[in-house]
Structures
1.
Amino acid sequence: MSGYDDGNGGSGSSRVNRDTTQVDMPMAPPRPAGPPGPRDARTGPLPAVGQVPAQRSLTGPVPLPADGRSDASPMVRTVERHLDEILAAVPQPDPIELAVLDAQGLLCAEDVVSSRALPAFDQAALDGYAARAEDIAAATVARPVELAVVGESVAGASTPTAIGPGLTVKVAAGAMLPAGADVVVPGVWTDQGAARVAVQAGPPAGSYVRRTGDDVAPGDPAVHVGTPIGPAQISLLAAVGRDRVLVRPRPRVVVLSAGTELVEVSATPAPGQVVDVNSYALTAAARDAGADAYRWGILPTDPRRLTEVLESQLLRSDLVLVSGTFTSSGFDAVQEALAGLGDMRFRQVAMHPGPAQGFGRLGRDEVPVICVPGEPVSALVAFEVFVRPAIRLMLGKRQLFRRTVQAIAGQQLLSPLGYRQYLHGTVMRHPDGGYVVEPVGEATDALLARMARANCLIVIDEDVTEVAAGGLVTVMPLLLGG
């Protein structure tokens, strides 16, 4: 089935909490001293940095439907309701086993238990002399203790040695500790003697010594389920003898563009044609979110070939992402092809830009298909709001959403009543603390160029039509890989 949903579907209306935390941003230039700041006619004096006033609409909040849902109208659903439906439907791929280096950046899907002791033998923690603590307890610079050097132990040597009273062995970091020794005296605390050495300080027993199993004992957990695998975890996995590990795999995402007006990047657009930028931009965004993303490109216009392409991509994907112009006034060939593959619905979502959105589960395996607007700025905004959280959920991440901050608006911001507005902007640290944000560019700027200069999205709620200069707004920094 395909069509515009009446807003009654979805998996629930619970709002998903967004974390707010400090984010590294460039410093805004200090503002010149002057008369007291502007006043907001509705709220009185503007807040100091760090205070969060309620910025409400001049005309009052959007009335709720009679059933209490937060949809603005029967034909328009909220961002939360559309997002909830997507997150409830996306699958979490089964864990797979990968070589440890290929597992970097993924979540561990097993409790890795060590069968080895780390370290595997008593060893020196640094270069120096292995000795008995009781022999050197009274050593000082003024009255050093002399010991006879009876050997040397280097890293990799497997022949055990031993010492008795008054004796020492010169050791290298990582070398096997001789039997009888319970301390390593750093070389800089001695005269570096070869046959006899003068020890000028007496560290207590156990100093600069790594005992067998101090790091990890046999049977200890090395890496837990849900741990992100980075360089430190790869080091530990290798140390306990694991060259492969079970992980949550990257979801396979295929990106397609729909539109008879689209041409490839290498072509010169004729009048009325535009270059397909969405398949490049959305593929890059999906990779940045952690997916194995593939750009298929422009969908064919022939109905039979179109259906064949969609069916083949459903077979190779965990998620399919389609950008195009999807409307409620009849179906185009792409909408009809999607509708023929399963329950695909197109909806108006209370957001700007790009309210026209689509979602369904298609094909034999009911693969999630997310449709986003064809206009490039709207497509990337929709990706941030709906697709990126879905990819992170499929990866098993606990934090699905970008972290947000509260920032001072550098100028007046206007927003349509009843729609959540997403504006591209530049956020910087305020010299007095907190953040300040400015929308990017003038109205005459090319949208793509404006978007490329932005480092954040300014989010204005549905029941706010105006934020005065100096008011506080929610800002979503667009950090690569964040």
2.
Amino acid sequence: MGKQTAWEEIDKKSSEIFTASDEIWGCAETAFTEEKSMKILCDVLKAEGFTVETGLAGVTTAFKGTFGSGKPVIGILGEFDALSGLDQEAGATEKIVVHDGASGHGCGHNMLGTASLSAAIGIKKYLEESGKPGTVIYFGCPGEEGGSGKAFMAKGGVFANLDAAITWHPGDLTQADTGSSLANYQVAYKFYGKSAHAGGAPHLGRSALDALELMNMGVQFLREHVVPEARIHYAITNTGGYSPNVVQPYAEVLYLIRAPKNSQVEEIYQRVNKIAEGAAHMTETRVEIDFVKGCSNLMSNKVIAKELWDNLVELGAPEYTEEEMKFAKAISEGVGDSRFESLEKIAKNCKDKAAKAEVLSHKGESMYRFVAPFNPDGIMSFGSTDVGDVSWNCPTAQAYVATWAAGTPGHSWQVVSQGKSGLAHKGLIYAAKAMAGAAIDMYEDPEIIAKAKAEMEEELDGDTYHCPIPDGCKPRALGMKM
């Protein structure tokens, strides 16, 4: 019975999951505005008999659906936010914008949230049929893209009582993630000066734009003196106006500071603050430092990741139709030579020569149907994910599953185009089954969770979770005044 029961339920309910995924693709709502997407997911949860609670930790579009009782308590994480400016016609092999400036699911979160929901439905069926104690909680996690929704949820204690958490992410390769990611802070620096006629009375003005430029120059020199893995990005969001004959009284820049550990981000943040304050002193302006959001580094739990990997291998990749493969080929070849980068990165980190050769043997394929070798050492990602904050609260692991053509770049129109395709639908069901299978392995064998917790304790080495988001900081929708 066990996993097969869950997998059959996932297949049985696949049609409603595909509908939900496609509807969320059509909503394409950005961070913390995902009301329609949330309703779609909550409606399915309620129809499937889950107890639904919304507004978790004061985050309007954060929610959970719970089924079962007793331990272990396993969380399944779902995301559903989109990216701004990535509108794209579905099923096209070239960039075709339908609504200029509109949002699009360029990271596949329409699939992410619904596959996780599908896994929870399968697990619920297993708990019902087996009669075993245990609880499954589906977490609807908003604002992953630039909002760190899970960090706000973690700050509110949402994940504190979980025994384990599982999630996944769409991609062009299938693998169990054992790597780490960078913690980050996002901070707005707002400079206030004094306007004046730049020709007639420039001495009366105090330029906020000068202050901003001096700050950026100071940070440029700082980059040499931080840990090599650190990243300091910025975007000038307001230059004070379009008139060069006005001393600009206001300017604003948004910084994203990344490093391998929260403590390193905090140290760099304090140094950037000093540079901003110094720039304000130099120009006799005033700077306001506005903390927007932060997230912790990811601690992938290798014990649970191995369970995900075993289930991915056991299930095997989906079969695709001739039409689906033709579509994948057109997308993949359109990417150019860079389409091989993800494959070559995996191969580079294979310690076994035979495994490396096996990975590289797939070069040139339009759709990767193999499971990458399990790598207990992991690969550091120089990106960030708010899954990191969950991983500091309980043993957490995630898989990547091929849902789009080989070499498809993330955050691209190509991802949006494939978001409603058969490639997407089959990939998300594959992911759902792997997550459900890994969770059921833990319900069946409590020793797995015990080992996962022991690994987490060793990794923490006495450290405890401190949410990087300061008190009083609230989630903000994209474009909300900062």
3.
Amino acid sequence: MPSRLYHCDLSKHRFLACFVCCLAIACSPTTLLAQFGGGGGGMGGGQAQAPAAATKPKFRDHIHNRDGMALRREDGDAVVAEVRLVGNQVISTTDILAELQTRKGRFYSEETVLSDVSRLNDMGSFDHVTFETEERVTRANGSSNAPQKSVLVTFYVRERAMVSKVIYHGNYRMNDRELSGRSGITEGDPLSEFAIETGKRRLLDYYHEEGFNQAAIEAGIGLPSDTNAVVFRINEGPKERIEDIQIEGASIVSESRLKKVIQSRGPMMGIMSYINNVADMKKIDADVNVLASYYHNLGFLTATVGRRIEYDETGKWLTIVFVVHEGPRFKVGDVQIVGNEYVTEESLRKRLELKANDTFSGTKMRKDIGEIVYGYGELGFIYAEVNPKTIMRDENGIVDLVYEITEGDRWKVNSIRVEIDGEPHLMRESTMLNLIEMREGDYIDRRDLETGRNRIERSNLLETNPTIAEPPDIIVKPLEGSQR
């Protein structure tokens, strides 16, 4: 059988988000556990006496077990004599009664009846649900001839109108099956104006995704012959395609490079001119933000990007023009580090690649943030966070960087536990523990975690084929009380 290491959930610190399951370095009270498959102990000398067999439940308790879940013993001074339903015409009485916990022969509980009203409302088939009770007193059979209370419970329901049919009129490029799957409205659904309006918006989004940006849809309820029919009247308009993409105002980056950054694509040569160039306005608008972010990342922090759409005479082909205003390219002024208490500022600055007088780079800034977080992780500060801020000076093209650090607590390893899914093997578990440099009582070190993970993966002790089992890995699960 294939073997692998696995463990439970993952701690919430960021730099360990890549660890998924296997060897756990957990801050738990247990020193070392090897998990085996189920084992059964037999009876033998010196063993404690086996527990007595479970008592067979009484028949009355047995019949109150439903859906595999034991109900609590009922209590009350009145029994439900009958449950009636008034007002249902389309929804069958059997389906409604199946939702109720109030039933004939059970003790009456107003709390249960109120819960039943909520259950009926949750079905989504009724506009209004209420109930009424009628107490009765009868003489019980037997010598005592004592009076017995019973309650007649009546639920009054008012059904919602149901959709009799859904009609799509005016669709020529999209078939009814495609539209039905998008609108989410089918025959037999409750007739709801909100649901119909939502279905209309979904259909419009679908048409726009497919390039029908001029599509218009009207939704209505009722026909002369059928008052519960839902009708979508559709004017599809032409399917629009991108004929060309142009970028104006770009000087520092070539137009060909910027076209590779965005998602919108123009036509290819020959018969490929109708492939992958549908005009999706949402994607085009998103490309505006992509280009702006690209320039900001290069140090043009005040760069702005707009777009212009130009149609040809047919209205089916369009040219997209992205207009770029680059602005100045910023350089780094001061670099400040605040919030660090345990780690010195000097040691943190040694990890920074982006320094004063350098051209600002968003890529380098994010890399520096990762280096700081990684450095804290090596010291046991597994929840350390870095919040960067950019502050533009009054003079043109200068930006100051401020790294705000939240160190959090410093965590230690309280115990190391090995869990194996498959055949247990004590020698294999001991070998894996020897591959890990971290020991109980040490501060959690991200560097040691990664080293141990790589050693386990290269050891061939466990199954590493992802199609057979999850690959071996290390998890850190801190426990309260182990921090500094």
